[in-house]
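Quick illustration, no need to memorize.
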Amino acid sequence: MRLILASQSPARRALLEAAGLEFTAMPAAVDEAAIKESARAEGMSPADAATLLADAKAVRIARRAPEAVIIGADQLLVCEDEWFDKPEDVGAARRQLLRLRGRAHELVTAVVVWRDGARAWHHLAKPRLAMRDFSDAFLDAYLAREAAHVTASVGAYRLEGPGIQLMREIRGDHAAILGLPMLPLLAYLRDSGVIPG
């Protein structure tokens, strides 16, 4: 059975590869900003918005590969009812990290599986992270070191890299923090016969 990850995220690809799955990664061109704006205007919760985004990605690829099993995922960073997007550049990453400094946030992470033209399964994880009250000098050094990576994640950090030094506390599934709750996903794929049990 053909398995497709509807994402261009290197972290999500790495998680599936590390688990030994055979899959194809196909980026799904959806207007995430418009979907988020619409979700906020309609009063959707972050959980519903993340699921809507994951669905939109999976649906886009399912139209091109209707015979495949499609994994769609998305993640929203929420801090005190404010939603954050991937920063556009290093300056935006700096502003975002200053707003998160010393505060806790959630990474609302949704994963869906589409089969035979419909959503067959979904899961939501909400890891909670708290940033320490780091100095401006530390932030400047961090951004200089991580400039090539800060626009690739919604939090402007990589926990698998120097971003771990921004944190004082982490609660939740590490794979979900990276963008894909692997244990629930693998359980579904085994139970549904997509991968060997």
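The two ends are 14 Å apart (CA to CA).
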